[in-house]
Amino acid sequence: MQKITSQSEDFSRWYIDVIQRADLMDYAPVRGCIVFKPDGYELWEACQRELDRRFKETGHRNAYFPLFIPESFFQKEKEHVEGFNPELPWVTEAGGEKLEERLAIRPTSETIIGHMFAEWIQSYRDLPLKINQWANVVRWEKRTLPFLRTSEFLWQEGHTAHTTSAEAEEETLMILDLYTDFVENILAIPVYRGQKTPSEKFAGAVNTYSIEAMMKDGKALQAGTSHYMGQNFARAFDMKYLDKDNTLKYVYTTSWGVSTRMLGAIIMVHGDDKGLALPPKVAPTQVIIVPIGPQKELERVVTYANKLRDRLAQTGVRVKIDAREDISPGWKFNEYELRGVPVRLEIGPRDLQNEQVVLVRRDTGEKLFVPESELLNRVPGLLQDIQSNMYSKAKDFRDSNSHVARHLTEMAEIIRDRRGFVLAGWCGEDSCEKSVKQETGATSRNIPFDPPEVLPACIVCGKPAKHTVWFAKSY
Amino acid sequence: MQKITSQSEDFSRWYIDVIQRADLMDYAPVRGCIVFKPDGYELWEACQRELDRRFKETGHRNAYFPLFIPESFFQKEKEHVEGFNPELPWVTEAGGEKLEERLAIRPTSETIIGHMFAEWIQSYRDLPLKINQWANVVRWEKRTLPFLRTSEFLWQEGHTAHTTSAEAEEETLMILDLYTDFVENILAIPVYRGQKTPSEKFAGAVNTYSIEAMMKDGKALQAGTSHYMGQNFARAFDMKYLDKDNTLKYVYTTSWGVSTRMLGAIIMVHGDDKGLALPPKVAPTQVIIVPIGPQKELERVVTYANKLRDRLAQTGVRVKIDAREDISPGWKFNEYELRGVPVRLEIGPRDLQNEQVVLVRRDTGEKLFVPESELLNRVPGLLQDIQSNMYSKAKDFRDSNSHVARHLTEMAEIIRDRRGFVLAGWCGEDSCEKSVKQETGATSRNIPFDPPEVLPACIVCGKPAKHTVWFAKSY
């Protein structure tokens, strides 16, 4: 079997090797599109379960809006159409006839949802309106990369409408908290929370907030965004309500999304030269049991291993057994390490005799000899340990690759020779932000809520800094 | 508030009134498309949960394939392209450029999945391959009806590949059983199971099997289909495997689907002049608690009602409380009957004193006075009773509107003056099937596995019948 390129040799190549060898995806015969294979889709289902529960617990309800958006809808919000027009695919014929008005395939649904909200919202009693949609969206990107940037991808998009700007901003930030909780505690990925600079905000938003994660090559990946729209879309789509004081007022809206690019983040944050490493809370299989032994004893071992599996499964552990006889244990060890299963449980005839099992951690490689009587008690704690350890490792990596720069040459040097994020002061001028990009290749990621340090001067012009900003190369 | 048209007055109008008043959907600003509003989408989520669990338990795995299908793919299976071509929407431009090859929006995914299966299947070890996809699909229909026939709809489509025809046929029928279990036991809708006639089978299939349900206006609704493809798609897409005997062989494939049209079936089978009636197993809310009483006592009642809600919820009942003070109990009673909640729990100051509650069944209108101490024990059984009763009522209706005809005039009379399904003999000739449609307006639904009666002569030509067939007008 083909070897995986090492991360140090070629990180991009390592990434492609891993996702294909781990059977997460395949390239589709349509430009920039991929097929989510069962192991990849299962990861997305795990993300969906966790997010969907959180959305419902915070009062959002799911709905489904059309894939097609009439061309005229995009014209209604000027910045929005400018931002998305270059990436739209157009349906021009259907049912054997040329359409009178072209239909875009949705790149995001603010426009069509805005249109529907305008019909649904009549009175202050109809507010807040808090809707989420699970859907496929399409953006015809020039350069694509599996999971991270594909022509079609899967995501959730939340859309809410409120009576006051304060309530809408509160929603925007509550969702950023929700995303942070999901990404840090379930995916074990530490993030920097903050606000996007005007040039990086969503097309049509007043403010965009983001959580930014660091991949193992030091590049940034935007792991979730939450947008405060003010009344921009309300005015464009005439979303008005009759208030208690009997006057018509525009609503304030928000939107926010997390997509299948999270799969790319999981892989690039936790993966290593052996392959994937999945955080236990999101791993479809948490424990893989591999029976070992000479042919004549194997049946007894497998019978015993099946019992262990059933008992573990009853305690809620997601456990599988691989009892295929025509494949060697060594091959299986490599395979499940490649696929990122957090714990391998080995059991052979001698273990049976000693009433013990061997547990091997994917994150550290550590081998634990556990008395069979303690197994059920030990596994949940072990999974928790692995989850915490994976988060800590990712955080250590992130922190040790987060730098501070006071001069543009210094930042350029860090970005070129080292890797990671660079914190710098910024005067607030677009031109200085552009200079950073030109000189270093890094773009502003966000203006962190809690910067490790506050920088007094703009890294480009030296004038007083309005903001302290994270810069990095990004996916 | 606008009254719902009665079923006897105008069934089609009743249907539209109910789905809008019950807030299940709204019309979208794109031809033939609807918006699934939260209450409607929640019903679909309930269907998804039940089906998804069954698919996984029977060894299927979810995956996701592209929305776009290159035009050339459709050309590969002749019957398939003829069947679907007239309904395809085409993307001709994307990212500001005209595409070299037009891309269809998937109406179903046999072609693109066939292409991928051909790459994934190498050896007999890769078989069977059993995949399911949850997705949106588009068919540009001339006449549309919310849920039942919309330009875009949501569905699941299963696709499997096997080494033998016997195994593939077994899969096809196993899925028909799975659908039957879901539709009869969860949706409380009785179905006739059988095989489609050649003219009604899926474009490209060898055999199509269906389950057919009867709506309250006597029309048929195809509630699920399962197709045995033989090697048609295997040959078209070169799905071959190396067998144990070291020769290359084509696989045998199946596909099967259930869509959001099930929502239409639930409504048209169980609904009445009061509105929706949801079977408890699929109802998002099974019990609605309405506190009653004069303003000064209401707080005490609501506190008590909240406790009841929490206790019921803990036993797994899906229960909500409507404690809004500015809306009268009478209005709420009507509203939750309209929305089809299976059980209403009324509680007022006198009930508090008597330590009892009042339960009102949506299916029968029956009022039950239940001692509070027995409530938790009584509710699950009551929900089960309602579920069974709804199935029985639907089955009685269906059976009493299932007729037998021996002459075409007789069938025409039944279809015209009465309603329902008509069982008739058929010689197997296309021309006779067409005559039935011309003379009666009914089409063949399926050739039932267990016909209530076997008819010896073709209802059109009088020659010996090859099959006994259900005919009906259909959605």
Describe this protein's structure.
Two copies of one chain form a homodimer. In chain A, the strands form five sheets. Chain A has an eleven-stranded mixed β-sheet with strand order 3-7-8-14-11-10-9-22-23-21-20, sandwiched between helices. The first copy, chain A, has helices at 11-21, 38-57, 71-75, 78-84, 110-120, 165-186, 232-237, 261-270, 295-314, 329-338, 349-354, 375-400, 408-417, 430-440; strands at 25-27, 34-36, 61-62, 68-70, 89-94, 97-105, 129-138, 152-162, 192-195, 207-214, 220-230, 240-242, 248-250, 252-259, 287-291, 319-321, 343-347, 356-361, 367-371, 402-404, 421-426, 443-448, 467-472. Chain A is built from 14 helices and 23 strands. By secondary structure, the first copy, chain A, is an alpha+beta fold. In chain A, helix 2 crosses helix 6. The mean pLDDT of chain A is 96. Chains A, B: Homodimer.
